[in-house]
Amino acid sequence: MTSLRRSIPLLGQCHKSLSSRSFHTSQNLAAAAKQKPSPRVTKATPRARVPNLPKQYNPKDALPPLAFLQSAAKAGAMDLEAEKAFEFLAKYLERARSTTKKGWEQDLCKVHGVTPQHMVTLSGVLRRCPEHSQQTLGLTLALAASEMGEKTATFELIQSSINKNQVFENSAPMQRLGLLAKKGKDAEAMALLGKVLFGQGKEDEALEWLRKATQPPTGSLEFPGSADALVYEGRILLKKGDMKGAEEAFKKAALELDEPTAYFYLSQLQESGSSTHEVYLLKAASSGVLEAMHNLGALELEKIEKQQKKPTSMADYGMATEWFQVAAADGFGMSMINLALMCKAVGQDEDGLRWLNKAQQLPEVRDQATNTRRKWTEQRKMST
Length: 384
Prior knowledge:
The protein is an all-alpha fold. About 65% of the residues lie in helices and about 0% in strands. The chain has helices at about 30-35, 60, 65-75, 80-100, 105-110, 115-125, 130-145, 150-165, 170-180, 185-200, 205-215, 225-240, 245-255, 260-270, 275-285, 290-305, 320-330, 335-345, 350-360, 365-384, and strands at about 50, 165. The chain has a two-stranded parallel sheet with strand order 1-2. Helix 8 packs parallel to helix 10 (about 185-200), helix 9 (about 170-180) crosses helix 10 and helix 16 runs antiparallel to helix 17 (about 320-330). The chain is globular, with a radius of gyration of 25 Å. The model is unreliable at about 1-25, about 25-35 and about 40-55 (pLDDT under 50).
């Protein structure tokens, strides 16, 4: 394959009152490879630094309710007794407010029988709490566990910063990641380092570390995140124009490791409407990849647009409506706009406006939604 086709060709002009408006399809794959962390994530916001941690905590605000810890323990999200965890957190906050001595966290853990891995678990629980002070305490615990040598804390901190497109003011986790990758020859650390370098635009270095993580003699596919590392490798190769290499990376991630985003990328390298194209899209969509749901809706819509009989109700759009509604419900803006256009085409103007209102709340499609609303207003003025 020498060139990369668009994810789905733009559909023909809409019928009736929308004769000059085309339905929206997903961003083409080359652009997606350059701009998006993964197909299920919308366009990233500008990079921001993690704010400095406060020197003091108010226990009333930062401590989670005991019932919350009990629920986490009961659900299996925490392998520590809730009461014991609560007591540890209370003492942690007390010491954090009263001492500047280094290494006090490790001493406190020994007293309470809490391991650095327990701290990572508590960090995850706290960062799902609603209050900012609770989330900040969770981040503090993760940083402390990382400093104590718990590599899973380092990995989670770095992965979280990648997901949020943030840069830590505290460079210590990145330094530890580098040591784990370069000296410890840890495959997971190598893969994370590759992803960080990719985010910094250092694609050649990123590709080298990603391959070290997944290929012998330094790596394998037997570590958490190996499938994601292959997807990143494929994305870099796409940008370099190596379609064959990219497809091989995506196939390995999809067919050997069952990675949903890899199925999505693979679908984009198939002939539109072919059996393999739809099978890969269905694989990705069934695992929650929003672009795949949207593209399946667009495929169904394309079939309907080729029919002589035009839809007169939303039910006439069949599975196109179903796929767009599922993607839109999870916040995929282009599906919202397509639903608005479909509603408008069958005379359900109010429903169409409601979808446009929702789309206008999303930065990535705000301009498209605003322009569509403006055209509708102009059409209404011309018809009166």
